Amino acid sequence: MAPRPLIGLLLLVSSLGAGPGPAPAAECVALDDFSEGRLGEFPLEWKPRKESGRPVYSLREESGRRFLRGIARGIGIQAGREVAWNLEAYPILAWSWRPIEFPKGSDERRSGTNDSAVAVYAVFPTSAVSVRSVKYVWSRVVPAGTHLTSSGGNTQVRVLRNSAQAGQWVEEQVNVREDYQKYFGGSEVPKPGGIAVLTDSDDTKSSAQGDYANFRVCKP
Q1: Does residue 198 belong to any structural domain of this protein?
Q2: Residue 34 to residue 66: CA distance in whole angstroms
Q3: Number of domains the chain is built from
Q4: Which of 123, 147, 165, 187 has a Cα at 20 to 30 A from 178?
Q5: Domain containing 28: what range?
Q6: What CATH number is attached to the domain comprising 212?
């Protein structure tokens, strides 16, 4: 799906206001481990960008791990959670993800095939009506390290992986502060407003499936 600005999603979500509390020994603070909520239902504290996206995402459990599953059939709608944190103290965003089914023929470099099994956004409101975001993608074919832009430059895309490890859980850690400065420039980084995920298959008119778990922010 051609990425769309996430301001509509953020305006729908209830603000949590406060940042994370004191860091535990691991120097990380949980944003969401999906331990709350009923299995098979849309996750608590999250909002779909459009209500038609609510059935795409549901809580699952496997071998004691709770996670968020996205199953998209010809649809492309983000789900997000608004949560603020201190980016200076916690510049690292970490999570686990697992692509199950890549959209057939997907290639994020082309508008007509811009679908992904799993994608994660760090979202930065820049005004009451606009946001910037850094989008992290596990692509079917686009080489890791590729940088793409969309939404008039308001979404900066970083491809972290391709399909070599499909079906496997992989832990990710990215320095969101450094990525924001690298892609948007300037020394000032706005306060992060939340996170979002996207499993989509609308451009390829196919199906996609992927899982997300254990979102947290960490000290360097």
Answers
A1: yes
A2: 6
A3: 1
A4: 165
A5: 7-218
A6: 2.60.120
The burial class, CB within 10 Å (0-12 / 13-18 / 19+), for 104 is middle
The per-residue b/e assignment along 22-56, b for 16 or more CB within 10 angstroms, e otherwise, is eeeeeebbebbebeebeeeebbeebbbbeeebeeb
Residue 49 lies in a domain: yes
Q: Is residue 188 part of a domain?
A: yes
List the structure tokens of 104: 């057939």
CA–CA distance from 187 to each of 148, 178, 183, 184, 190 (Å)?
21, 10, 12, 10, 10
AA identity, residue 11: L
Q: Is the pLDDT of residue 29 over 60?
A: yes
Write out pLDDT tens, residues 92-142: 999 999 999 999 999 999 999 999 999 999 999 988 788 999 999 999 999
Give the DSSP per-residue string, 6-72. SHHHHHHSPP--S---S--TTSEEEEE-S-SS-TTSPPTT-EESSGGGGGGEEEEEETTEEEEEEEE
Yes or no: say if 75 and 200 are a contact pair by the CB < 8 Å rule. yes
Query: How many other C-beta atoms lie within 10 A of the C-beta of residue 119?
Result: 28
Residue 1 lies inside a defined structural domain of this protein:
no
Confidence check: pLDDT of 1 > 90 = no
d(CA 147, CA 171) in angstroms, rounded, equals 20
Q: What is the mean pLDDT of residues 188-197?
A: 96
Please report which helix (H) or strand (E) contains residue 180, including its range.
helix 176-184
Which DSSP helix (H) or strand (E) runs through 122? strand 118-125
